[in-house]
Amino acid sequence: MINSCQSLYQSYGLNCNRQPDDKQLSEFVPVIWFELVSNSQPDDKQLSEFVPVIWFELEKDVDKSIKEENDRNKQKYFKSCDQLQNAVQVRFCWDKFQEEDPCRFVKTSDAYIPIHQFWSETIDYFEFQRCGGLISHVNRMLGSEVNKAQGLSAAGSEQKLSLMSSAVSKRSDDYPALEMPSGNSLMELLDGLVMMYHIAAHKSLMELLDGLVMMYHIAAHKQLGKRCNLRDNMKEFVESLQDTQEKINRCPPDEDAGIREELNRAYKVFHNKIEEQSRKMAWVTAVTYSKTKRSDVEWLLKVVLQTIKRAAGYKLLFQYVPEYYILTAINAFNALFNFFHPTVPFESLDNYNETLHNYALFITRHFSDHRILNPDVREEVVQALACFICYPESLKVLESLPEEKTKEMIEALITPHENRSLSQTNWILVRIWKGCGFRFRFTHLPHLVPSKVQTAQFGFASLQKPLPSYVFQDLIRKLLLQDGERATKFLDMILNQLNWSFSEFIGLMQEIQQKVTSPELVILESRQLKICATCFEIAVCLMRIIEMIVTKVPEVFLDPALSSSELLLKRLIQVLCQILNRITARNGIFEGVVSLFIQGLPNVSYFPIAGAMIGILIQLVIKSRTESKQAVLRYLISDPGFKVHSLEYLVGKLSSDTKNDEDILPEEKTDVDDLTKYLKLNENTEFTQHHVKEDDLCTICYSDQMSVTFVPCGHQSCRNCISHQMMSKKECFFCKTAITDVTDLKGASILTKSVKSGKS
């Protein structure tokens, strides 16, 4: 059957690739916006010129059911691509105007929607929101800026708009000149210097082009996705058919007849299903996933990217752009990259490099754009960047962008942002590092089957091979060393998230263990299992980010010249020891739940968290300078949660989760041995500690002596605790009074400057 499917595709492959030109399309496509042709549907004679001829030839020979199915497919797939067929008509009309007046109209390859179309009332955008929110809100906030951008001013008590003279108007200093893709300037139109014919033509073309973008967002992209699902389903059935055939071949002749009969029945079911889907896929290949349709989507993507690029130059007026322009740019690229490919390879685009470059500029410019208010739209852009960075070609494009663009992107990634999902941002940082960390070269966890059991938040992109970016790693190091305040806030955010995510994970594990060990039958909720697995993955991602920082920028933790390094190192050791203590406790929660192999927790195992933990400790203890080792060792040994035997237990679990010894590099084995030997050798080292009376201990951490006083309330704590508090809040731990100053016990001010400036 597999061979017959292959021969089937070969037999009509040439016919599927016979694509009509624009003239042919304009003769049969039902046009809904203008009267170029009648609205009648094409007959079979017209269709047979460029669709799989094999189905028209076979219709007279096949049974009635297949013929009826063929008729349904014919109507379904042609109806589903009407939206993309309209792109041909828009391009046809646009080029027609351009041929008649080449001085005033640009070609379709340079088409875009001018920004003033978005604030004018010439186009009805229905209930679609703008990047800045509701249109009423945007008008209220930016109405005066619109007038300024147009060179208009309010004159007289009636507030009538009038053109400002060139001597008074300073529009060009604040905003670019308003241009239109027809080649005319807005001022020429307002002054009546352009013929009414061109004004009407420009208005019609803008309405058609904007309607095409809207239609793709509403319907066309969803239809492309459904056709892609058909291809994926067919692939799964083919794999199942192959698997069944192999089982039949391995089945001994003397085997139970019932087993062989069941296998033959399954084979027949898969055979019939593939036969049915192959007929549907023939229509999809010829009508939807064709080079002509792909060129339409490519052109639409170029139009949208050009529109967004030009609108972005108008500062806050960019908020007039409808949200669906941002989403259409992302969806159109996704369609070219995932839906049409591999039927029509993405690399065969006419403007392959230009498309990648323009899209890279778009996502780097707008993934942290404060002008986009809708959090869902921002999430879409962040996720687009997360997927884009996973592939070799796209990563090279990102690295080759102008330095100011890559710098802005990395600055946004390492800057705390309340209005952006931190999980996706952290995932991008992990992808930048993946392939460089300790035992961090896998595409999927060693104990899991790829893409079958483990979750994939970003689809196929998350299962790409590790592809570290040394360019971005070096840029992260440069930015963190240049700005100590940014580095401190970034690491404080990472440590806070790590502490929160792991605490939530342990809490959920306790609930799961209680249900599992309950004498009553309790069904575990899939939602609870998913949240538990997500918290674990977030914690592991954060630990890998810390591993990257400790490796590339160890100074932020180990340089005594930096005021925050000691505090950050102490907090890091505390969090690591807490995690180590929890996951290595004999007969503890982690070990108990992991040993049950619960279906909803496939990623929760020792390997990912042990690899990240050991990678951090190797960099802190083995790879650091001698004086830094002593500081790390002092905090490790003095922490009550740290035990060398716990670390050895974790190393053993890490090895047991690895099925292939080739995954372990010789230097990694050496580093692990050196780490355990060094810590065992110094486990009993006694560091000089001053005896502190219990009454003098800091009541926040109970580990250091109280050394500072808060002004004006007079409460006291140790310096580390108040420094940590000042990173996020400027209020007393106990009475919540706003802190105006921090003094030592002798009354000398020590943090006044930090408090006033909001710095730690």
From TrEMBL:
GO cellular component entries: cytoplasm
Listed InterPro entries: RNF123/RKP/RSPRY1, TPR_RNF123/RKP, Znf_RING, Znf_RING/FYVE/PHD
Residue ranges crossing the lipid bilayer per the database entry: none
PROSITE patterns cross-referenced by the UniProt entry: ZF_RING_2
Domain RING-type as annotated: residue spans: 698-736
Alphabetized Pfam families for the sequence: TPR_RNF123, zf-C3HC4_3
Domain of life: Eukaryota
The EC number(s) this enzyme carries: 2.3.2.27
SUPFAM superfamilies reported in the protein's UniProt record: RING/U-box
Keywords: Acyltransferase, Metal-binding, Transferase, Zinc, Zinc-finger
GO molecular-function terms, A-Z: ubiquitin protein ligase activity; zinc ion binding
A GO BP entry: proteolysis involved in protein catabolic process
PANTHER family: E3 UBIQUITIN-PROTEIN LIGASE RNF123, RING FINGER AND SRY DOMAIN-CONTAINING
Protein name: KPC1
